[in-house]
Amino acid sequence: MIPDDVVPALPSQRALGDLVTDVLREMITGAKFQPGQHLKETELAEALKVSRGPIRQALARLEEEGHVELRRHRGAFVSTLTKTDVDEVHTLRGAIEKLAAGRACTRMQGQGFAEMDAVLEQMKSVDTKIDPEDAVRLDLQFHDIIYAYCGHARVQRVWESIRGQVTVFLRARNASFPDFLDVGYSEHKELRDALALGDPQAAQDAIDKHILGAYERLKRLNLPDR
Questions:
Q1: At the N or C end, where does the chain have fewer CB atoms within 10 A?
Q2: Better-predicted residue by pLDDT, 217 or 20
Q3: Which residues does 173 contact at the CB level (< 8 Å), separation at least 6?
């Protein structure tokens, strides 16, 4: 059974299926469920105090996002991180983030860079061991700004569709290689300075360099092939 104290209350302002999807996604990316865990519709419905319909809709959405695997006649299982997952998400992220950075570097102006600097200041102020969750939050907050200023709605939607998986990858990377204090601020500051040049090619080159580091670390993890 799912303990009541790990299930947040559902607000009522949005469509129920969307709310359930958001809650389950957060529970998966927040490691409330473990890789390979069987997610039973009846237990989820009881825990969230909803019918099985919204649960079924949410699980279908989460399968599309790569968080859940639906197995015929067996139900839903939390996806397990594999080398194939890492490679596919990395290459997709590289493609869309290079496009986003090349566009954002000419659009951000003062406001966008002020937002980046605020995140960088938080990264810089960390002078003790940082919780992996906080490291992931700051990392994604920085990159969200690039997408927010790229002026490309479809790129933003693709980013939103893989952001949860990137969260899982970053958490695994930070847990296995806890070097955020050494590289978090410096690497993101280098990326910020490249964006500030206003040169799309320089911005794209900086993105390539930046996300390659995380990819190389993830490749060193002992993950199944697929």
A1: N
A2: 20
A3: 214, 217, 218
